[in-house]
Amino acid sequence: MKKTLVTLCMVLLLGTTGAMATTAATVNGMEITVDEANKALKVLSKGKMTWEKLSKDEKNKLIHMMAPSKLVSEASKKELSEKEKGAALSGFWMQRSMSKMSVSDETAKAAYEKMKKAAKAAKSKEKIPEFDKAKQSIKMQIAQEEIVGKLMKKADIKIK
Amino acid sequence: MKKTILAMGLSLFVLDNPLAADALKNSLTNILNDKNSVGMVNLDNLSINGKPKPTTHFKKRSPNTIISTVKGYKIRKKEADAFLNKVTKGKVKDYDRLPKKQRKMVIKELVKIHTLKNKKSRPSTAVIATVNGVKIIKKEADSFLKKMTSGKVKDFDMLDKKQRKLLITDLARPIVLKSEVDMNLTAEERDGILRQVWLEKQKSTIDVTNDEMLTLYEEKKAQSLAVNPNAVIPAYLTIGKQLKSEVIEKKITQKLMKDVKIEINFGDHSSKDLNSSTATLDNNITI
Fold it and tell me: For the domain bounded by B66-118, which CATH number is listed?
């Protein structure tokens, strides 16, 4: 029984020490790990320094330099609404997906002519820009529609 | 005898024709002789090219007549008449005057109205659809519908099957996109994006004065000249945007670092509780 307790205490102690070692600092309770500190140092010192090699003063300076970034992360998570977060993340993902796609000039031109025809049929008074000016945005629109279309096709939608 | 009858018939035919010709002649002569007459036959009502209008005879039924029964719903003529009167703004009031095709349309519309009237609306917390396993509750659909129709339609349950499908597809799009984003963005990427959005939002609310920008310019100028007295300092106006951005960044940092609690693990079992409001995003560190 005694042996078991000693082993358990040893394990707990080692575990705590390990956890302590990975934490470089806390900012408003948020952890900055040694790994994170080393990553920042690698960039700042061009790979010359590590957390362990820093003096107390240097550690202090580094953490104060890293703290605002942590605080921005915390604030962004707390202060942005779910809608804002969703829009930002979706927007980024969409941009990335669109950059991997290519829409030909011919496809864009066909879509442009179709839009022009529709505007004429609707007797729209809005001035239609030249194809060259509208080309890029048309290509983006086509790419976006294609991406969303594909997603919606494989989506599992059940209406009750 | 036969001969006598034939001769009589012939003489009657010969006598009758001049009589008819005389009547027409007299009528035309009277027109010409009449002082009030313009001497012309009035042909105003005569249409030369038009086809004669067919005269349709409608069988008018009583208002209480049941004109159709759909799934037990008995539709009386007076209902159809009232609907027609309303829809055509009083121009058509009688269902029986409509052609078959239009009658069918009226019945269809009446059935639709009846179904809607008798439809029971589910509670606002009822799950009306699932998209990739994500539940959409009625409240969400109702508020979306209200927004889309500028408040004219507020109840999802009042929509027909086709309309429901369209609405759910619209509501599903961001959900589908979100599940794709969740699967494909790393935690680091997400953090970076959200931080950027938050910073942009902050930037748009911060005002920067000319004095603040000028102070920063002088500070930077002094710093550069201290390092290199021959340094070429760009004109204030050429770096206006950069200065503004730096002032904003400084202000954000100051706001964030206010009352911040920092504890550093120095590795020698001593941790320091430091309260600082001096660190900035562009704080230079010499290592």
Answer: 1.10.8.1040
Q: Reply yes or no on domain B127-184 having CATH 3.40.50.2300.
A: no
CA–CA dist A141, A89 (Å, integer): 18
For residue B156, the distance in angstroms to the closest alpha carbon of chain A comes to 11
The 10 Å Cβ neighbour count of residue B263 is 17
Run of H or E residues at B23: helix B2-33
Residues B96 and B77 sit within 8 Å (Cβ to Cβ) = yes
Contact at 8 Å (CB) between A45 and A54? no
Q: How many other C-beta atoms can be found within 10 angstroms of the C-beta atom of residue B147?
A: 10
Interface check B189 vs A, CB under 8 A: yes
Q: What ipTM is given for this predicted complex?
A: 0.74
Instruction: Note the pLDDT tens digit of each residue in A56-113.
Output: 999 999 999 999 999 999 999 999 999 899 999 999 999 999 999 899 999 999 999 9
Q: By the CB < 8 Å criterion, does A156 face chain B?
A: yes
Q: pTM of the predicted model, to two decimals? A: 0.59
